[in-house]
């Protein structure tokens, strides 16, 4: 209800500097307080974005209202785009594993394989992702890791080993 009121044309389009400053501070406080909700409540995030966008367009860049709105916009963007990357990656392991295997193929450049082996090590170092890798352990070992432990000459190949 508060975000709906803030996004009404009469309030968000104010030209009064003092009112702009109060509106920026109020919106900034709402962004700070409500940030955990924005990833799952896009309507709230959009309304606040709308208010902040109008404030940024209507206020001089050297004003406190502009700075407050700008900082709140950055915080809103961070909060609205916050995704638990570990859960997202673990849920999509059936997509991740073929990509990793494709880049671990012996026909690829050694530095590409080294990068993906390092990525694989990082992924397996996370408990949640390591559990998600379990159904793919055999194919990763046979198709990805074993071909890369075969001796080859060169600096990068030695690092891969």
Overall description:
The chain has two domains: 2-82, no CATH class; 86-160. α3 (17-34) packs antiparallel against α4 (42-58) and α3 packs parallel to α5. The chain has eleven helices and no strands. The chain is mainly alpha-helical. The model has no long low-confidence stretch (mean pLDDT 80). It is elongated.
SSE map:
Layout (H helix, E strand, L loop, with lengths): L1 H5 L2 H4 L4 H18 L7 H17 L5 H17 L4 H7 L1 H11 L6 H15 L2 H7 L3 H9 L9 H6 L1
Helix pairs in contact: 3-4, 3-5, 4-5, 6-9
Features of the shown structure:
11 helices; mainly alpha; 161 residues; 72% helix; 0% strand
- Please count the helical segments: 11
How does the major sheet shape up?
none
Order of helices and strands: HHHHHHHHHHH
3D shape: elongated
DSSP summary, beta strand count: 0
How far apart the termini lie comes to 60 Å
Low-confidence stretches: none
Q: Please indicate the count of domains.
A: 2
Write down the Rg. Answer: 25 Å
